[in-house]
């Protein structure tokens, strides 16, 4: 990939690795932690900065891929619990940009559709106790043995430094038909295709050159750039080269989704409906390039899976305007207001729970997601409020939501599939579907730079 954009060179050694690269590891464990003693918690952070076996992974290039990676995030309550030497409240309180982070995921839940069954009172593994959730520790590993071994080591540190484990979430890649780890999710779709290409991120760790705009790094990393919309909060040493992330535990009701598809087959083929709702066929081929079948001849490359826009499909005849991928990344759609490129999110997701088997008793399954940005309000919450849970941005109607991710209910849910001649109808209206994705947990995290972590641990600068 050639990155033609220009900006200051990023200090990759100072940025947490999960911001810059998807580690592509097979299993994860995300710990939900609470601080009991500020001094010992600072020692804990210091150990993870200076450690060997367990060390926070930076975005610095590696020659040999490690067996595991480790990253860390802090809620606003967590920053306060550390009793830092500077007044963090004042630093983050100087801009309304940081208001969602200060208030926290539970307070912000109604605005992004976390109501009803998704209400925070139903959240799991300690995430329902916002005042107690201080740290999220993200452990990635190539295999289960490594994950288990490193978890034992971490829990020894928790005990030693009085870090309380409120709970944890495990995730693992789903296996393909050959028993190899895949990039599929429980709904049967290929995932992780349309990641943004970011200015200054290493090409070999980045996204294939798919012809999409290169997004400035300051949309994801807090930087001293004149063009940056979001200034670095004080103390400056804490904010620079840091990021934010929304952590989400998203249950996927696969049984209900598959039943819904079959229930519509008198009007539309179930696989075509699944493609129209998503904007891609389940194998990842986009409707914009192949609206009638899930394969192109000759087959397209992986980069081409994202090499399209909607300039020739303004009415959504190929890919419905209300589909999942078109809402979450409107590209150059003229009807989509709100500076689409500035609303992008870096996504790190992995399935949790057993593979779906219609013949066995149903169990919970879903996706563990991290949505990384420089502004929780103007990026993550904007997408959830204005694009996912409203259709007004594209003149679809205020209450017309994303058919996959939206907070739908059978009483008023609706999804329009535009039809072209010779059909006498302008569109096929699909109605009465339930919410297929339920929020089972959430937290708003600050992802400090390596320099910031040293500051938090009171390690002298060198």
UniProtKB/TrEMBL annotation:
Keyword field contains Oxidoreductase: yes
Keyword Ion transport: no
InterPro entries hit by this protein: Dimeric_a/b-barrel, DyP_N, Dyp_peroxidase
Family membership: Belongs to the DyP-type peroxidase family.
The name this protein goes by in its record: Dyp-type peroxidase family
Gene Ontology cellular component list: cytosol
Known cofactor(s): heme b
All residue ranges annotated as the DyP dimeric alpha+beta barrel domain in the record: 14-171
Keywords: Iron, Metal-binding, Oxidoreductase, Peroxidase, Plasmid
GO molecular function: heme binding; metal ion binding; peroxidase activity
